[in-house]
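WARN no homologs supplied; continuing
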Amino acid sequence: MAKIYLSPSKVADFENCRWQFMLKHVWNWKEKTPSINLIVGDCLDKAVMAFLAGQFVGQSVDPVALFTTELETQIANGAAFGSKWTPENVQAMGIRLMEQFPEYWERSGLTVLADPAGEPIMQRLLELDLGDDVVFRTKLDLACATRDGDIAIIDVKSAAMEFPEVLAPLSDQITACNIAVLAHAESLGLQSVDKVASLR
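OK structure emitted
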């Protein structure tokens, strides 16, 4: 029997539209031209993670240059813009965000943690075997230490709409991530999880 993989994103897709879930996760259909919203989110995510990886090893990484290069590459491969966005205004928005991010990160007081092997705890795929060929799968974006020494797991978001911080602990995705992190705490080298938050 083939294994069944569960994840917060799949559950959200199913609750949003069952037909969309079937097309995407059962029949593996994909949009011929991806939405610019997805492209921008992916480019922002890559730029942020590259910047943080550089910070971890003490290297200077320019998130603006990374975002711009990645965005231009992905748009050149095809993007569905709709009526709200153009190549110029999405690039300007992303550049503005990436210009602000280094200062934002410094103000946050967060430091990316290392696992027992000395690798940064960033974008880790975590799985839990639930038995009967069912596997729970989620992704940990960041595990960080706060200024106060607390351990926080961070869900990195590039949402188009405001996402109140008070809702972060209520998010299915970050709750699922918290459960998976606790199950993998020993291999990650984490003593506990004190906080959860959304970085956006």
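Residues 36-108 form one domain.
OK
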